Amino acid sequence: MSHDGIGPRAVLRSVAFLTAGMLTVPVLAGCGSEDPAGEPLAGADAAGADRSDIADGGTLRWAVDTVPDTLNTFQADADTTTVRIAEAVLPSMYRSDARGRAVRNADYLASAEVVDTEPKQVVVYRLAQQAVWSDGREIGAADFAAQWRALSGKDTAYWTARNAGYDRIEKVERGKNDLEVKVTFGRPYADWKSLFSPLYPKEVMGTPDSFNDGARKKLKVTAGPFTVDKVDTEEDEVVLARNPRWWGDPAKLQKIVLRAVPHDKRVSALSDGTLDLAEIGPEAARRITVAALPQEGNTPLMGPEADRSAADALRSWAVANGSDEDAADEEVSARKKLRKKAEKYARQQKALGGFEVRKSLEPAYTQLALNGAEGPLSDERVRRAVARALDREDIAGAVLKPLGLPAEPVGSHLALSGQAAYADSSGALGKPDAKEARALLSDAGWVPGGPVKEEKEDTEKDEGEEAAGSEADKEGKEDTKGSGGSEDSGDGDDGTYIVGEDDGKNHGTGDGKAPHDSGTGTGQLKQGGAPAGAYAPKGTAAPARADTAPVAKDGKALVLRFVLPSGPGSKTLETVAGRIAAMLEKIGIRTDISKVDDDSYFKDHIASGDFDLALYSWPATAFPATDARPVYSKPVPAADGSLNVEQNWTRVGTDQVDQLFDQAIATLDDSERRDLIRKADSRIWAAAGSIPLYQRPQLVAARKNLANAGAFGFATPVYEDMGFLKKSAQGPEGSPASKKGGSGS
Question: I need a labelling partner for 343 at 20 to 30 A (CA). Which of 52, 125, 608, 705 fits?
Fold first, then answer.
């Protein structure tokens, strides 16, 4: 959420129907009350081990989605691999701890504090004495100043994707000595800890040319436990090598190879021995879990001689019983192919026994987005009715319980459980209540029992679309199940798009395009017709039992277009969408579930506003006042008459939410700022533009003897602590003899 959003688009802004007197906002926790932030729902699972138990040397082969197009995290086409590289090779003044909160990185920063607030806010950074770049030069004020000038937004020659916070700085200068950096802000900035993380050397930030092109494929100067050895686009990998000038704890690994492997190929890569660590999906996780179980009563596969004998017998039987000889040969060939697949599967399972699944919850949540720009959902009462119809506990349980993860619905748009700003503000919307939902629909003019006009184009259903009440409902009533027998699961994640974690094709550059990830979004959205039961002949009254009868207004039934990606990894989303469709059907709302090609999911549908309902995810950050504002701010008209929505793809926003964000970002008192953020979240809930559902599962396949790596949860990885266990430190299965919370926790 920290980068800029999409460019302007001409859409109609939704009309708000709730008055201030009708808005219910829960009372926020006061002094002396229990902290509503709570604890993280799941901790890191990274096979934590002491550095003394880790062998020196070795290469970690780590699966990533892409080889990045740029190594500059501040450019529009940066992706998650760009961020991962930056974490390993560049300074960060602050990093995320196990609770998702910003903590000082002692390797670079001895201290940092606000020393003045009047007449202006002044922050003094005191750098670690040993902190030097890989060329031997000290990290200092010149690097801070160059980064500020590049990202301030004042010089348009720099092709920056974001400048939040840097645009509030008035000047950066040397302090009392070379180890001090003094930053003066022209406007108060509460999220100052988000700045200079990562910090690039002045050689990168110093000129527009070096910023725009100099750090795309190489970083000559770094300052982390690793350096960038090479970016190999032919081999689809980035090689990081141990930094000999690193002053902190020396890296245990000699190299880290970040290898681009599609999600549906990762099981094969793990079993072939070409990967040690990879994020996977639920089906792959089940395969690895089964492979690690003790095998009882195994029956060995038939050998070649037995296989030929069985094939000859089958062919003889087929011919003797009147089957065509060619058909018999085809049957035998099919059986042989099936046997080869079974043998390959068995070999993979044996190899997968050397891995384990490490699981946590990602610092990101999946939401139901409601497009408030036009159509029925432009009426806030209809959006609230949709929201009140949802059983979020049921949805979270369907996704997370089968994985053995905590299945609590997310209560905030702006933070996750354990983070400082978190509080469950869903009470501003109300609990699930079908009766209240129907009352809201009735108040908006959508009532059961009215005549529905039959329109020819609406009764012709496009091929490939599903309607609620048919297959989508059946699918939604089943928990996600794995096949267990495919070569590769192809379920790299749940198919949900995460802003800021994509394949780098685009990152909201203001050109009207939207980012997309390697698992989601082309294809034209087919305009489907009426779902089963949504239309009746003209003049036909609804049944006497109207609790779940379709609602109508002005002769039209209420049918919402539910857009989903169709590619690998979308099974979980289909399950969630099916459950949502069934819940909406109970209050008289029908849905057309439209599956679109992955590559166009965001660009052609979400970003362009061509949907009623959609599922995608947002990451949580330690700085919601800065990072969440473009996601929930009120769209504003641009000079050309179009609408600038930034990252607010639901097109729902209010002046009050914007004001609360503005106050929070300028409030230096932590407690007051948290209260403002929680108030903003309450009002976002009440507007019902997006409904948080569940925190995303994080499933990682890791070699059993790999320590301090896996499912990190909120924590920033500690790259220098990763490595392979010494023989003496391994348990009977090869994993750490005593697992701890994990590196970075």
Answer: 705
Model confidence pLDDT, tens digit, residues 639-687: 888 889 999 999 999 999 999 999 999 999 999 999 999 999 999 999 9
pLDDT at 494 over 60: no
> Rounded to an integer, what distance in angstroms lies between the CA atom of residue 310 and that of residue 112?
75
- HSE at residue 718, side-chain half, CA atoms within 13 A, is 25
Please state, in angstroms and rounded to a whole number, the distance separating the CA atoms of residues 42 and 169: 37
Query: What pLDDT, on a 0 to 100 scale, did the predictor assign at position 376?
Result: 97
Taking CA atoms, 291 is separated from 45, 295, 490, 597, 735, in Å, by 19, 8, 18, 33, 15
Strand, coil or helix: 605 = helix
Place of tokens 């559902």: 693
489 phi/psi in degrees, rounded to 5: -65, -35
How does 561-584 read in b/e, with b if 16+ C-beta sit within 10 Å? bbbbbbbbbbbbbbbbbbbbbbbb
Q: Is residue 558 a contact partner of residue 589, using CB atoms and an 8 Å limit?
A: yes
What distance in Å separates the CA atoms of residue 630 and residue 5, rounded to the nearest whole number?
7
User: Quick one: pLDDT at residue 734?
Assistant: 64
More confident of the two residues 408 and 161: 408
Long-range contacts of 26-32 (CB under 8 A, 24+ apart): 26/425, 26/427, 26/428, 26/682, 28/423, 28/675, 28/678, 28/679, 29/423
The pair of three-digit structure tokens given for residue 631, joined into one six-digit string: 């996601």
Query: Residue 572: which of 739, 699, 444, 445 has the closest Cα?
Result: 699
Residue-wise pLDDT for 681-713, tens only, equals: 999 999 999 999 999 999 999 999 999 999 999
> At 419, phi and psi to the nearest 5?
-80, 150
The residue behind tokens 């960038």 is 228
Q: What is the DSSP letter of 258?
A: E
Residue 606 carries which DSSP code?
A: I
Q: Are 720 and 225 in contact (CB under 8 A)?
A: yes
State the first-to-last Cα distance of the chain, in angstroms, to the nearest integer: 23
Q: How far is CA 222 from CA 85, 215, 225, 496, in A?
A: 11, 11, 9, 33
How far CA 284 is from CA of 269, 355, 363, 657, in Å, comes to 12, 12, 21, 42
Q: 3-state SS of the chain: helix, strand, coil percent to 5?
A: 30, 20, 50
Residues 434 and 586 sit within 8 Å (Cβ to Cβ): yes
217 CA to centre of own chain = 25
**Alpha helices by DSSP H, 60-140:** 80-89
